[in-house]
Every structure is written in C-alpha cells, then in structure tokens.
Design brief:
Elements lengths: L14 H7 L34 H7 L23 H6 L10 H25 L7 H26 L7 H14 L4 H13 L18 H13 L1 H23 L29 H26 L1 H25 L2
C-alpha cells in the first residue's frame, strides 16, 4: 500500500504513482507528505517515516503563509531516498489489477450509457415542460447528472489506456462518450497525462496548482482574500470552481501552472508559456477531437431547432451542469 497525501489534492486514483514519478525537488519544488517505502502486495506495508525536514528554498518562500490546523505538516517531507521507486509501487499492486477485460469494460460502458439515457427518456415522457415543474426538472438534473458521471469515468479510463487491450475499441468508446459530454477526447487525454506526470509541480503542474505569491494569479487572489475575508472568499472560490471551473480549464487552462500559461483544449496553437501542452502530432489529435465535439453541438442545435431550446436545456444542459459538478467533485475528492 502507498501512504501518501499531497499539498494539492488532484483527486485522481493515480496520484501516488504520479508523486513517485515526480518527487525530484530540483525540477521546481514538489511538496509531499511523508511516503512509506513499499513492499510486495502480499506483505504488510511498513510504517511511514515522518521526517521533520523542510526544503530551505521552500522555507523562505512560505514562512509568511499562515498555517492550517495541521500546523504546516504538509510542507514537511522525506528526502529523495525515502521515496519508493516506481518498481516498488508497481510490485505492491496485485497482478489482476493490470488485466483489461474488454467485454466487462464494454458492459459497464453500456450500462452507464443506458442508465443515463433512460433517465432522459422517462423525464421526456412523464414530466411536463412547464414552469410549475421546475423543482422536478432540477431534481432530474441532479439525479441524471450524477448517474452520467459513470460515462465520464468510463471515458476517463479510456484516456488512461485502462479500458481495453484493443486500442481502437478503447479510443472509439472514449471518443464517443467524451464527445457526447462536450469534452475533446484526445486533448483531454494529453493534458490529463501531463497532469499526472507533473502532480504538485508549482510551475509545470497542469491542474489544481496552488497560487504562487509573486505571480499574477497568486497576487490577485491573495489580495482578494485579504479584502473579502476568509468566509466570502471561500464561497467565491466554491462557486467559481463548481460553476465555471471546468469550461475555464478547457478554454484557458485555468488552475494550471505558469510554465504553459494560457492554453486551449480546442485550439492547440494557444499556448502562452514556454512549454507546449500539445507538441508535435498532438496538434492533429486536438483538431480530431474538435470534430466530435462540433458534431454533437450540431446535433444539439438541430434538436433545439425542432423541439425548442427549453426542451434541450431541461433534458441536456441542466443534467450537463450537474454532471460537470459531479465530475469536479469526484476529481477533487476521489483520492
């Protein structure tokens, strides 16, 4: 087992392996909790060592930051030699976890899609499109958005190459599901891989990077926090993240580090930082991803033209808004 927590919760099940792959402090300063050395999965894990060591460079940069209830424990971490190697991490995982069962994967993909579609069909058949039924439509959006997260998880596993040994089937399922959710499949696959390889890197991290004092976003948010106070600032952050966070990330690379600057998951040439998010052949894959999203947007437009915008908003966009919130929360707190 891997005992680890990180300064910034990325919310993905692969965070432990990402931390192992990215523990070298000389590449920009990743901050981790103490991590225990790993053993084979057939053995009991050893107790994590707690070394009260703070990187000198980090110490001078964070000394004026107020501590939480943990009193700065998240800023203390073992030395490089105390981190497990990638081989040790992999050896601790049971072999059956690496098996890809295509039939079982397709079954779960079909099940999630069927459950989500069934909710929409039942609502269309039995819930009147009237203002008096707004509470019912809100309940439908919350329920179906949560169920639809299953489709997101399946597409997520496709992006991680964990769905099937058959790459064509895997990418076809991931591409279809993500396009139906208005997410560019290959674009997200690339940025999500970068996110895992640079977890908690303060400049090269792809998502959920803490604001850095002295940088534009960091200074603005610290000043805003000072002016608003803890409570109002927390509420503002919550609303901004849950309502605008996902589209802001796809369109501008919001919450990413400064190394890539402003990025765009639909237009690969938008990249204001010194490091490219979509290098080489990935640019063509971004455009290919756009085809799926634009195609489904055209379907939604045709549906709205024939059935009315209110129908599409009630059946799709309300559910989609709640689905995005469910996905954001899953990604934040799954770990």
């Amino acid at each position: 087992m891997l005992s680890t927590a990180s300064l910034t919760c990325t919310g993905c099940m692969h965070i432990g392996l990402s931390a192992v792959k990215s523990h070298n402090l000389s590449r920009g300063g990743r901050l981790h909790w103490p991590v225990s050395k790993l053993t084979s999965h057939s053995q009991k894990p050893s107790r994590a060592t707690t070394r009260k060591t703070v990187c000198p460079a980090a110490s001078s940069a964070i000394q004026d930051i107020p501590h939480s209830g943990l009193e700065g424990q998240a800023l203390r971490f073992p030395t490089k030699d105390d981190f497990p190697t990638r081989a040790e991490v992999l050896a601790s995982i049971p072999e059956d976890c690496f098996e890809k069962d295509t039939v079982k994967s397709l079954f779960y993909a079909a099940l999630s899609a069927a459950m989500t579609l069934s909710c929409g069909l039942l609502a269309f058949a039995y819930v009147p499109m009237k203002l008096a039924y707004l509470p019912t439509w809100l309940a439908y959006a919350a329920l179906t958005g949560t169920i639809g997260t299953g489709c997101w998880v399946i597409a997520h596993e496709c992006g991680h190459n964990a769905f099937s040994k058959n790459r064509f089937i895997q990418d076809a399922v991931g591409y279809l599901l993500h396009s139906l959710l208005l997410v560019p499949y290959f674009s997200w696959q690339r940025s999500h891989a970068v996110h895992h390889s640079r977890t908690n890197h303060l400049t090269e991290g792809e998502t959920h990077v803490p604001y850095v004092k002295g940088e534009v976003k960091g200074s603005l948010n610290l000043e805003l926090h000072k002016r608003l106070g803890e409570g109002p600032f927390a509420i503002l952050q919550l609303v901004a993240h849950l309502v605008f966070g996902w589209p802001a990330y796809l369109l501008t690379g919001a919450t990413g580090g400064s190394a890539r600057g402003v990025t765009n998951h639909f237009i690969p040439s938008i990249n204001t930082g010194p490091i490219e998010l979509f290098p080489g052949s990935w640019k063509k894959k971004v455009w290919l991803s756009d085809v799926g999203v634009v195609g489904f947007v055209a379907i939604l437009a045709h549906w709205a033209y024939n059935s009315g915008l209110a129908t599409v908003a009630a059946l799709y966009f309300g559910r989609h808004l709640c689905f995005n919130r469910s996905s954001s929360c899953r990604q934040e707190f799954q770990n």
